[in-house]
């Protein structure tokens, strides 16, 4: 995907504009979602067991999930296209590494990572562009590396765009998203679906994937 395309530029501007409000909104959010924490813990356990290298949270926003991954024992760092988000993350977690960059073209050597977490970070990506993201994730991961995806799930419906509060986003049928990842060379070893919480509109999907 070319970073000159209009949708990443528009999405970055939208997140820059609401970055401080967004950071306040998600502060402490993980405390109230035990199933989400369980998925992150499972991911951390398999990555630690593999001992294969650092973990990048791509589209890290204000850094709260990156910090949680660190607390789970991972050598985690964050990458995001939004300069304002990266500034907030660096101020909040000065002991962690945060970089401005694109998950479509990671500034990393081939096979450098043991894991990647994409926590609602590909939700704004037009479906035709998504395979390129997965190919880039595969390039940056070591053989046997792990990938965790979190996304809005279609709940029995088709792939569809919706009016996300920041920028247009997509709800994916979990089987369809798993197929895109499989076509890029990933193998699924776990999934979790949960119902929306009191302040959430849609079911949440999670896929745990690894490379051969």
From TrEMBL:
<dbReference type="Pfam" id="PF13649">
    <property type="entry name" value="Methyltransf_25"/>
</dbReference>
<protein>
    <submittedName>
        <fullName>Ubiquinone/menaquinone biosynthesis C-methylase UbiE</fullName>
    </submittedName>
</protein>
<dbReference type="GO" id="GO:0008168">
    <property type="term" value="F:methyltransferase activity"/>
</dbReference>
<dbReference type="GO" id="GO:0032259">
    <property type="term" value="P:methylation"/>
</dbReference>
<dbReference type="InterPro" id="IPR041698">
    <property type="entry name" value="Methyltransf_25"/>
</dbReference>
<keyword id="KW-0830">Ubiquinone</keyword>
<keyword id="KW-0808">Transferase</keyword>
<dbReference type="InterPro" id="IPR050508">
    <property type="entry name" value="Methyltransf_Superfamily"/>
</dbReference>
<feature type="domain" description="Methyltransferase">
    <location>
        <begin position="55"/>
        <end position="145"/>
    </location>
</feature>
<keyword id="KW-0489">Methyltransferase</keyword>
<dbReference type="InterPro" id="IPR029063">
    <property type="entry name" value="SAM-dependent_MTases_sf"/>
</dbReference>
